[in-house]
Amino acid sequence: MTIVEKMKQQTTLSFEVFPPKTEAGLAKLPPVLEELYKWNPSWLSCTYGAGGSNKGYCLEIVGSIADSGRTQSVTHYTCVHNTKEGIVKDIDEFLAAGVDHVLALRGDFIPGEDATNGDFDHADGLIRFLRKTYGDKLTIACSGIPEGHIESPNMASDTAFLKRKQDAGADFIVTQLTFDMDQFARWMDEIRAAGVTLPVAVGVMPVLERDKCIRHCLSMNGCAIPRSLARHISKYYNDPEGFMDAGMDYTVQQMYEYLQLGVNDLHIYALNQSEAVDEILKRSGLFAKSE
Ligand code: FAD
């Protein structure tokens, strides 16, 4: 069964990791992946060029996930600095490494630039090109931004472009982090009303560290800090351990709320650490870990 078929039948679990910048960092990833596999995730994705960085070890990581045979490997891929010719070369490389699932994104611009400087300005063009070039050989995901993309004039415009990505051939949606559950519920209603029928994998950002949590909301994404999270931040402002412990419960609660809103996959931003993810999933009681 494909991961998309699975998502339509039951809410699945998946993880995101990112490519470490150094070889030493890369060497630390296999034990983390090993622990994540034990949760039997439906798929595991790796970012590509996030924050305008270079693509780093993305290919090595998604290749190793594919080689493990433990879960479906998904690579992120962006329009940034990528020509049609380069895209075909890269995707052929991913396919040769056993990776045929792609989260197709516009991408974060390289610092100092204000365009992709590639052949596509937006994700819909990339998705259309991938679908036309590779047909059913690729499963293609696209982003969804529940609070609206930072460059969008309004939610309606963002939703219309999301529909365009569906029409271009995307198979499922992976969302940007949000802590604003009311907005998430409104967004689900809005996209469904606009004819977006794709399964939704919701990005779950664990609440573990005060400064990172604030930065994740405000540095690039323009995400709201709802009252419940603001209270959490204030209560544990000078207590990192308390912040993390209660933050895990906060994340579990958020996962339950997402389930009630009918999401198709809980996609945990694992931040390349398995211990906190382990604890969150154990506390949730939602999935079983194999030893
Ligand atoms: P798009 O869908 O192209 O949308 C960008 C903006 O343009 C929006 O305002 C949208 O409304 C508008 N728009 C869309 N289509 C059109 C169109 N045809 N004409 C005019 N306007 C349009 N970045 C990375 O660099 N690497 C990663 O690995 C990465 N992983 C991510 C994973 C997830 C789950 C998410 C949600 C984001 C990720 N990002 C990553 C960040 C992402 O690249 C940025 O948010 C980027 O600014 C937008 O990408 P997008 O695919 O949503 O863009």
Give the helix/strand layout.
Elements: H1 3-9, E1 12-17, H2 23-27, H3 29-37, E2 43-46, H4 58-68, E3 72-78, H5 84-96, E4 101-105, H6 123-134, E5 139-144, H7 155-168, E6 172-175, H8 181-193, E7 200-204, H9 210-218, H10 227-235, H11 240-260, E8 265-269, H12 274-284
Parallel strand pairs: 1-2, 1-8, 2-3, 3-4, 4-5, 5-6, 6-7, 7-8
Helix pairs in contact: 3-12, 6-7, 10-11, 11-12
Bound molecules: flavin-adenine dinucleotide (FAD).
Would you write up a description of this structure?
With 291 residues, this protein is an alpha/beta fold. The protein contains twelve helices and eight strands. The chain has an eight-stranded parallel barrel, surrounded by five helices. Helix 6 (123-134) links the parallel strand 4 and strand 5 (139-144). It is globular and about 50 Å long. The protein starts with a helix and ends in a 7-residue tail after the last helix. It binds flavin-adenine dinucleotide. Residues 47-50, 76, 78, 105-108, 122-124, 143, 149, 151-152, 157-158, 161, 174, 176, 203 line the site of flavin-adenine dinucleotide.
